[in-house]
Amino acid sequence: MVSLKREREIELDDDDEVPVKTGRSHDTEDRRSRHCPYLDTINRSVLDFDFEKLCSISLSHINVYACLICGKYFQGRGLKSHAYTHSVQFTHHVFLNLHTLKFYCLPDNYEIIDSSLEDITYVLKPTFARLHIANLDKQGKLYRAYDGTTYLPGIVGLNNIKANDYANVVLQALSNVPPLRNYFLEEENYRGIRRPPGDIMFLLVQRFGELMRKLWNPRNFKAHVSPHEMLQAVVLCSKKNFQITKQGDAVDFLSWFLNALHGALGGTKKKPSCITKVFQGSMRIFSKKLPHPDLPPEEKEALLLKEEYQEEMSESTFLYLTLDLPTAPLYKDEKEQLIIPQVPLFNILGKFNGITEKEYKTYKENFLKKFQLTKLPPYLIFCIKRFTKNNFFVEKNPTIVNFPITNVDLREYLTEEAQVTEKNTTYDLVANVVHDGKPTEGAYRIHVLHHGTGKWYELQDLQVTDILPQMITLSEAYIQIWKRRESEDTDNHTGAGF
């Protein structure tokens, strides 16, 4: 490790125009614009800016340069710095400051200004004009990466570092929600948000914005992205509740991530954020306390007359709706194969019709609850409850949910007042997260609709394949994102499979 004194020396030489003894005399301006004879040694195929920006030797984040010949990161560029030593030892001469986005030739230590390098700075820090953002969903042009592969921006594989597919599918789902994506593509939207001193949660916002811009970059060097920096922020901000090396639950991660982003963007219960504007709806909850089941009938009847056992109504907001699956049957068919049951989506949506009652048990008390929706969000998230946990193990319900891809009308689940005020109640699917395999050993994949082409794609880590819409309904859906049709939307919705 470098000493504190050396660290200070390295820190100072960041953008200081310190004269270098080269035996020639040039003024500062001349040194800044000198043509570099080594630009043809740059190897774009090894450049990868998705990983943490720290020196490969000192492990410091301060004043880090990327060697554009081998792709490694080094600290400083002054005499005796790691980048300087690397340039002399390996005759690698072209370096990029990862913070200032300036190019330098070492060991001569002059800045390189050359328009042919713009593609490198754009990959490191993509930027999107408002007109570009406005047209993202209006075309389906394929772009060619530097390595020769073609890709659709937004339909891009995410690297599974070890066991982070549970987070990848959530990030890919959210990156295909246009209003959320558009907000994060333009850094100006959240750059000015003030956070308390020492607050680390805003790191989530910055890293998510960076990931969005990389996923939608039409000038990528490769047709996939590593979410390494995004996931490091998740590990830090969740206090290691979510990790890269340990499989997590996609619904738990989605719930935490949306709430964390809402708070980091300055949102509160009363103050909206882009998260609540896109996903938040509201419902009415009718709750009735139940007497203990072991009590004699006459005691139960007496208790039911008391005020605390009368039905109470409350209003609540939600960012997603949990849909309960019926208990899977245990019987087998003639060939001794377990029957995989199926249930229509509208059956499990019945939970929100204001009539269906369900018992909820707490440690001490039991309640009977029913729900009814009062406000529908522009994008509605369903989380299908596949896992039940007890003290010994996690059990998975494999029931297949039969759902149409388009034209799901939720009007009947609204209160009478809301049915009058809510004009648009029809939704179309835009993302479908699937869990395959056993509860603790399974893997995640996702189906997403590309709005520009109207085609569906399946993404599983780095693998990206197109898929027929009717194949989507055969999977064990776990999380779904539905887009509300607005009045101007045509009935001939893109991506309709049936």
From TrEMBL:
- What are the USP domain coordinates in residue numbering? 156-485
Q: One GO cellular component from the entry? A: spliceosomal complex
Q: Which InterPro entries match?
A: Papain-like_cys_pep_sf, Peptidase_C19_UCH, Ub_carboxyl-term_hydrolase, USP, USP39, Znf_RING/FYVE/PHD, Znf_UBP
Q: Biological process GO terms, please? A: cell division; protein deubiquitination; spliceosomal complex assembly
Which GO molecular function terms does the record list? cysteine-type deubiquitinase activity; zinc ion binding
Q: What is its EC number?
A: 3.4.19.12
Q: Which terms are listed as keywords in the entry?
A: Cell cycle, Cell division, Hydrolase, Isopeptide bond, Metal-binding, mRNA processing, mRNA splicing, Nucleus, Phosphoprotein, Spliceosome, Ubl conjugation, Ubl conjugation pathway, Zinc, Zinc-finger
Superkingdom in the source lineage: Eukaryota
The catalysed reaction is:
Thiol-dependent hydrolysis of ester, thioester, amide, peptide and isopeptide bonds formed by the C-terminal Gly of ubiquitin (a 76-residue protein attached to proteins as an intracellular targeting signal)
Q: Which residues form the UBP-type domain?
A: 34-131
Q: What is the residue range of the signal peptide feature?
A: none
Q: Which Pfam families match?
A: UCH, zf-UBP
Q: Which compartments does it reside in?
A: Nucleus
**Which proteins does it associate with, and in what oligomeric form?**
The U4/U6-U5 tri-snRNP complex is a building block of the precatalytic spliceosome (spliceosome B complex). Component of the U4/U6-U5 tri-snRNP complex composed of the U4, U6 and U5 snRNAs and at least PRPF3, PRPF4, PRPF6, PRPF8, PRPF31, SNRNP200, TXNL4A, SNRNP40, SNRPB, SNRPD1, SNRPD2, SNRPD3, SNRPE, SNRPF, SNRPG, DDX23, CD2BP2, PPIH, SNU13, EFTUD2, SART1 and USP39, plus LSM2, LSM3, LSM4, LSM5, LSM6, LSM7 and LSM8.
Similarity section? Belongs to the peptidase C19 family.
Protein name (Swiss-Prot/TrEMBL): Ubiquitin carboxyl-terminal hydrolase 39
The species this protein was found in = Anguilla anguilla (European freshwater eel)
